[in-house]
Amino acid sequence: MTSQQLASMIDVSAVRADSAERDVRAAAECAMAHSCAAAFALPAFTPELIEMLRGTSVVAGGVVGFPGGGETTAMKVAQAKELAALGCGEIDMVQNIGKLLSARFGEVEADIAAVKQAIGDVPLKVILECAYLSPGLIAAASGIAVRAGASWVKTGTGWASPGTTAEQIRLIKQTVGDTAKIKAAGGVRDLDTLLEMHRLGAERFGIGYKTATEIFTALQQRL
Predict the structure, then answer these.
(1) pTM of the model
(2) Are the C-beta atoms of residues 123 and 152 closer than 8 Å to each other?
(3) Residue 161 pLDDT > 90
(4) Which of 24, 57, 112, 116 is the most exposed place for a label (fewest CB within 10 A)?
């Protein structure tokens, strides 16, 4: 894998509760330096992130229902519309985890579908938060996301513990096949983990700027 190929699969993020302006700027600078796929910040910093990335190839992404997913559908729709109107080229939304755990699958699907309708052609990634789910629910949620119009199924926010596992990537890939792409986030701490998850089907990785820098350095050393 070349550095360019690696960069095309990385979303650099500054989406922790304690991500300050300096962290958002560092994430943007990392993404621009390596020509990464995208960069993400929490909504309050998203307008500034968009300005930082303006004129570059890096997509500014927005997060909806982050990190708990328990907002009403109307609130998620309003947030998604605002972020898309600001200029976000991708939206990562957290599914309603509580309703999934309550087996209210129709409501989970309707929640996702409403956000997808609100953003039109903007690609939607649905965050499952696999750390809270059984293998059966991971498979069920993956299918729900695809039926609701998601372009991507994403493993987590990076807030929950433990992080994403290779087995979760394998399970999601078995469920969605080629109907949606997979984004891994949370627990991708080194190059070997990333490469193994890529082999299993993950095509995008949400990584903090510090870890992203370490992974790029590791790849350069190997090359």
Answers:
(1) 0.95
(2) yes
(3) no
(4) 57
